[in-house]
Design a protein that fits this description.
By secondary structure, the protein is α/β, with parallel strands linked by helices. Helix content is about 45%, strand content about 15%. The chain has a seven-stranded mixed β-sheet, sandwiched between helices. Helix 10 links the parallel strand 5 and strand 6 (about 285-290).
Length: about 475
């Protein structure tokens, strides 16, 4: 071997190089020296890496940075993925080098205790009492599945005469697709995941929900769970948890809140009182730290109003890991799908302890306020049409021309989005609402300003003119 890959001095020198590269990436992103992204076709990107030769760590890291999207660029206003706080990201190196799998306590004592502290802060901020509990898992999709598995076990325990084919989930038609995927994965017929229509603000229609639920019950079905969006993926709309909580109690069903994106509003007194009233009545709620908590992916909290319910998703025996089948908060593999569990809690713990929950709340309020400012700019312009008034940091809008058909406007806005992506100046995404194509932004980056979003509007107008839209 040419070099000792476990040599400490070599590790130190390479580490300095990597930190310098990442610091340069941050500077070039902050100051907009680099584009948001320089996208090539999937075939070209695949060929580049297929034929790539690694000469040293620094050059590989540099190429990786240069060929990746820059989430720290102020003009990154696309998907719901955070631009992490740099100092928090450094803890990822510690976690990966220590490599403490947290399935059982003795393999990850510090990480397990830290995670319990993190969960307690989440539960306190929700308004749960001391009987609540939870854990961290790898992303919102797995978190929603885990919570709904608990709902299934809870429902079948109350109705042992019933079968899974008789269970129903009621959820907004604007809910993330992973809710339907979770239902199918756990064995429900696809028709038993009932998608409820939304109102003009893209919130679940609670009257329609009540009507559909009663029809299911009259036909002999059981409402396993009512799922509230906090907020929906496409439009950032928060369902009315106050009403859904009352309906769930009336139906004797499990209320689950998918707060993957917007659940972190619990850390803002103002937003919690406006958007998440009665969230403490939910039987379970999930919150992604890697969305609105400035934390690298993946890290999702799965939280239960009653601690005992946090154990019923994956109740099974494993003698080689556990001494006995019991409720044991220290051996996390008893409650999570992962057995070799990533030490994900340390980043959120640092955030809570170093900066405090108010820092998170202030950040979310800032991003929401900036999105409202963007809404006002677009809503006042004759060249644009908005789909909704934002409740979060997500806004859907489209370039608009008087008397143009929706079909023509769809083509125009698709051209605008493709042109923006090709230029690399901005990163925005899109969605379809009622067969209408909308441009969609999610203002995640704390460095994005009103000047940046004004520049985006101007760029869209310029593209429309240049392409004879």
């Amino acid at each position: 071997m040419k070099e000792d890959h476990f040599d400490i001095s070599l590790f130190r020198s390479k580490g300095y190089q990597i930190i310098d590269d990442l610091a340069n990436y941050l500077e070039s992103s902050y100051k907009k020296y680099r584009p948001v992204l320089s996208l090539v076709s999937p075939e070209e990107e695949y060929k580049f890496w297929e034929n790539y030769s690694i000469t040293d760590l620094k050059s590989f890291n540099t190429d990786l940075i240069e060929r990746s999207i820059s989430l720290h660029h102020p003009n990154y206003i696309g998907h719901q993925v955070s631009a992490p706080l740099p100092e928090i990201a450094l803890l990822g190196l510690t976690s990966e080098l220590l490599n403490n799998g947290m399935g059982i306590y003795e393999m990850g004592a510090a990480g397990t205790a830290i995670e319990q502290n993190v969960i307690r802060q989440f539960c306190n901020s929700i308004g749960y009492d001391s009987n609540s509990s939870g854990f961290l898992t790898s992303g919102g999709t797995l978190a929603n599945l885990t919570a709904l598995l608990a709902a299934r076990s809870y429902c079948l325990a109350k109705h042992p005469e019933s079968s899974i084919e008789n269970l129903y989930i009621l959820v907004s038609e604007q809910a993330h697709f992973c809710i339907e995927r979770a239902g199918i994965t756990m064995g429900l017929p696809q028709t038993n995941i009932v998608k409820i229509a939304v109102d003009d603000q893209y919130r679940i229609d609670t009257l329609e929900l009540h009507k559909r639920a009663n029809a299911i019950i009259q036909s002999g079905g059981l409402i396993m769970s009512v799922v509230a969006c906090a907020c929906s993926t496409a439009t950032g709309s928060y369902d009315d948890i106050v009403v859904l909580s009352k309906i769930s109690k009336e139906l004797d069903s499990w209320l689950h809140v998918d707060g993957a994106h917007g659940g972190a509003a619990i850390f803002s007194e103002k937003l919690k009182s406006n958007l998440l009233q009665s969230v403490e009545q939910a039987d379970s709620i999930i919150i992604d730290a890697h969305k609105m908590m400035l934390t690298p992916a993946l890290c999702t909290a799965v939280l239960f109003k009653k601690s005992e319910n946090s154990y019923i998703s994956f109740k099974q025996k494993a003698d080689y890991l556990f001494d006995q089948i019991s409720q044991d908060p220290n051996n996390l593999a008893k409650r999570t799908y992962e057995t070799t569990k990533y030490m994900m809690g340390i980043k959120v713990y640092y955030l809570f302890k170093k900066l405090g929950v108010k820092y998170i709340g202030d950040y979310i309020e800032r991003q929401t306020d900036l999105t409202l400012q963007l809404f006002d700019l677009i809503n006042d312009s004759p060249n644009f049409e908005v789909a909704h008034r934002p409740m979060s940091n997500i806004l859907c809008f489209r370039y608009w021309i008087k008397d143009a058909t929706d079909e023509k406007l769809n083509r125009i806005n698709q051209t605008i989005r493709n042109t923006i992506i090709d230029s690399g100046k901005f990163y925005i995404v899109s969605t379809w609402l009622n067969d209408i194509y909308y441009l969609r932004v999610t203002i995640m980056n704390v460095l994005t300003t009103i000047k940046d979003v004004k520049s985006m509007i101007h760029e869209i107008e310029e593209i429309a003119i240049r392409t004879s839209c």
